[in-house]
Amino acid sequence: MPNTTALPSVERLLPQVRELLGPKVLASHCHRGDETILVAPGEIVSVLAALRDDKGLDFDTLMDLCAVDHLPRRPRFEVVYHLVSLAKRQRLRVKVPVEEKSPSVPTVSGLWPGADWFEREAWDMYGIVFEGHPDLRRLLMYEQFEGHPLRRDYPVNRRQPLIGPRN
Amino acid sequence: MRDAPAATLDLEAGPREGEFYVNMGPQHPSTHGVLRLMLRMDGEVIREVIPHIGYLHRNHEKIAESRPYPQYIMFSDRLDYLASMNMNLGYCVAVERLCGIEVPERADFLRVIMAEFNRFASHLVWFGTYGLDIGAWTPMLFAFRERERIVDLFEAVCGARLTYSYMRIGGVAEDLPSGWIAKARETVAYLWPKLDEYDALLGHNVIFEKRTQGIGGLSPDQAIALGVTGPVLRSTGVRWDLRRDEPYSVYHRLDFEIPVGTTGDCHDRYLVRLAEMRQSLRIIEQALDMLPEGPIVAKVPKVLKPPKDAEVYVRTESPRGEYGVYLVSDGSANPHRLKIRAPSFSNLLCVAPTSIGLKIADLVAIVGSVDIVMGEVDR
Known about the structure:
heterodimer; A: Beta Polymerase, domain 2; B: Cytochrome-c3 Hydrogenase, chain B; 3-stranded antiparallel β-sheet; globular
């Protein structure tokens, strides 16, 4: 298997995942060797817990969590989870669509403590609320920052008000 | 804009009876850049560590959305600036997979040689600064003396000494100048015996052992739950290295071992990194032997437009762990979304839980052993 690109778009895991999760899988696809499923926001905790605890799939690691802004498409946001099984050497991407109006997703920091900062970053950059997160503060920006900079409608050159010293 | 949900941090409430806060950083020499740690102390014993990051935040991901794919390579240098070659490599492989570009064989070998030299140089900087953290001055002088050789090699090939921007989408920027391979072999031969010197200087030093053994120990389950990767994960005994487990470039044709530790403490992280440096030299030697002739860059359109709605998550093994690049395309010449999954970002999470109940001096040993680079934590 040389370097780069020609990874077969063969579904290796998806049949097994669909069997495990049943109708919770809203859609699925396989592109460039990355297998992806789409689930509803309300189901995300139960879906990830099932994928983690299933002996055959064994997705023990949450490698990455991030949000994507698809403005002007609706639903506007997506939260993307990248799972890895270190033992079985396989990967799965789980996506959750999130509406622009009151964007919120249940937290998965109870399943993986490593999700803590990823979720804080997604809140900081996109304003997506992770319900039940123990400490959802801004992570990279400062408290007084106005807006969420990675949203597509946040202009690159927008200025922020000056903040004075804190007493 | 709506307000942030109520923070549960009890800093405003003040310290508890008999306890006090100590602010460490962001300008503290042992925090490796601009990491700020709030410590809740009981005497000299740490009760809680609250990390604050973001001091080096430049919003790379926003910058990437407003420029064509090839122009981000220069920014990827500034993520993990101690291993710019590895950062270039991960980003270029991601764009190539997104667009379906095949890289010429010679370019692949050149990339591996540069990436492994850079891994070695990056571990050297860690070795030197970790010595400083623990109170040993000499390792820094040794490490930078050797690193100079490697940086000279990079300078000969691309003109830069820190931010290389050497890789291109579809290959590399320049072929090797004449005499480079002989010089590289000479450097490898020079570096081999130095590693034993390091062990004698620092690794077997009694003070060093006392400061690091049994400090900051992580269990494999803890490490996996936190998303820790790289040498820190391998020091706990988990044999996981993307170069072997999910090979990219030409790593599947090279023979090397994945060193692991047993206890996951600071001393094991030292041992794993030193062993990794030996493996890097092995890889470089093989790659220099196998280096084929041929073109160094593939034919890539001037304006690169990947298919609409394509997305890839490409992971490569940087010196610090899994460096993931998640790219979403909207069919235009700019990325729709670029997410950098930085290894230091997740590795930093293991500092707070492992340092509770220890002293501040131990915290310095732990932060140093994790080997964070704030450039990629804050992005």
